[in-house]
Amino acid sequence: MNSKVLTIGLIVGLVVGLIAGYAVTLPRINELEGRVSAFQSKISELESQISASQSKISELEEMMPRTIIIRDSLGRNVTIPYPLRKVVVINPSAAEVIRALNMTHTVVGVSGSISRNPAYWPELSKKPAVCEFAHDKPNYEVIFALNETVGGIDAVIEYGVHPAVRRFFGEMVETLAPIPVIGIDCYRFETLYSDIETLGIMFGRKSAADELIEFFENISNVVESKVSGIPDEEKVRVYFEHHGGDYLTGTRISAIGKMITKAGGKNVFGKVRGYYITISPEDLIKNNPQVILKDSRGVLGYNITDSAPIQAYLDELYARAERDGWNGVDAVANNKTYLLSEYLSAGPKKCIAVVYIAKMLYPELFADVDVEVFLKEYFERFQHVPYVGIFVYPSPW
User: Fold this and answer.
1) 164 and 312 together in one domain
2) What is the pLDDT of residues 52-94, one digit of tens each?
3) 89 and 77 in contact (C-beta within 8 Å)?
4) CA 307 → CA 14, 293, 352, 393, distances in Å?
5) Alpha-carbon distance 201 to 203, whole Å?
6) What range defines the domain where residue 102 resides?
7) pTM of the entire structure?
8) How many domains does the chain have?
9) Which terminus of the chain has fewer Cβ atoms in its 10 Å neighbourhood, N or C?
10) Does residue 383 share a domain with residue 280?
């Protein structure tokens, strides 16, 4: 009897417990359902916001300019597609900046000066050439055919104020219309930074352009900090012969004249009127330079490692000095005559040439400066090619 009562009691207790548990759980379930409903409502709200944002982004993309107006080295306002995606680059100096911006994939055509130099231009040398040399008038038919092949050229990038190009620049602009022609120099000290900045804007690579400008500025600051205090009467006298011919040199307003000045030297023909001038052996003897620099294009440079032909060229220069009677000037008598490669003296690398020249003129002052580090970094970091070649001969250090 007692066991039956106990069993019944247990059953009754279980049922009561279940009923009590059900009574507690039901409100909890209702609460959770409410939360789920609130979450679902929030999700719907966020989805609506995302949809609205996407619509706004689409509107903004539609509002973004498909073209921009840039100011080139000639001071012309040129309307171009933005950003540039397919370009012909005739000017190698501008091509170097474009490569420093990591935008060579946009180049669809080049000049022969680039295509014939696969060592320095391994990627661009494979592109179609639109003219034989960088200073030549381009073949318009080739450019128009290329325009059809690639589905539209955004711009042709040429030198701006270079005298060899100015004679046909207007014709090129008119003939190639509606393809924009942009004159960007990238070799003159006074506009180099603005040219780099303009190319950075054109390709949508402003931060990369700023990095290149900063690199050149740092080099200039190194030189300026060391040579700025040299008294005028103590500056080294320099004769810098242009690659264009024997006894052709530049005044203070020429590119080579500005390199001498920036390096802290005194151009012995700096005060002569004109831009580039031809002097006489007698003029050279009279001004008695302490250092002679010869811009020797095609003789030494990138990927050239055999010094024998370079020495032969230097021997010819010394033979001319003896033949014309100026072998007694200080620069020749003291073996301070150097050949410079265009890989230093041309294009944006002029900034690096300045620190090389400064160390030639003032070796003690620049004893703590390894100038070759700058050119090596330029080649490897900005041009993405190995550092190999002879750029100054004989080595001054």
Assistant:
1) no
2) 766 665 555 455 559 999 999 999 999 999 999 999 999 999 9
3) no
4) 105, 17, 22, 8
5) 5
6) 67-210
7) 0.83
8) 2
9) N
10) yes
